[in-house]
Structures are given as structure tokens and as C-alpha cells.
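Handoff note, outgoing to incoming analyst
You'll be picking up this chain. Sequence as last confirmed:
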Amino acid sequence: MARALMGGFWIIAGMAICAFLPFFMQLRWARAGKFGLVLSVLAVLGALAMILLYATARPFGLDPVQAMAILLLGVVPAGLGGGAGALLGKLLRNRDDRK
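Most recent structure output, in case you need it:
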């Protein structure tokens, strides 16, 4: 029972790291005004998500279950965290510019 709980903990911890790392990176870049870099990172995450989604339907060297696991446990949290960080950074930059 304890092993199963620890396994679930490490999955959630990995997903949190995949979400928080892009969140804080995008927040810092957006607040600094580097929106080209912010959009480039989000575009790469979106492209990676589409490649992995395509790999779930057409096996071409990557197991479909493995592709879906990488997509749902790593890329989706990173994309959501990055998007939230970019939005918050833009809002904070607008607030700083008004002052």
C-alpha cells in the first residue's frame, strides 16, 4: 500500500515540476518584455503535443501508450503552466507600466 502511494506521489511531483518550471520561466520572460521568446517556447510545446498526439494514432517508432503518457504527464502540464505564467507575466508587466 505504501509503495503505491509513493508511486503516485512521484507522478504528481513530476507533473508539478513539469508545470512550475515553465510557469516561472515564462513569468520572468514575459515580465521582462521578451514576448518573442515566450511565444517560441509555447509554440515548441504545442508542436511537441501535436507530434505526440499523432504518435498515439500512427505508431512510427514510438509506442502509442508511451506517447500518450509523455503527452499527458509532461507536455500538457508544461503547456498549461507556461501559458499561465505568460499571462500572469503580461498582466504584471501592464500593471508595472501603468505605475
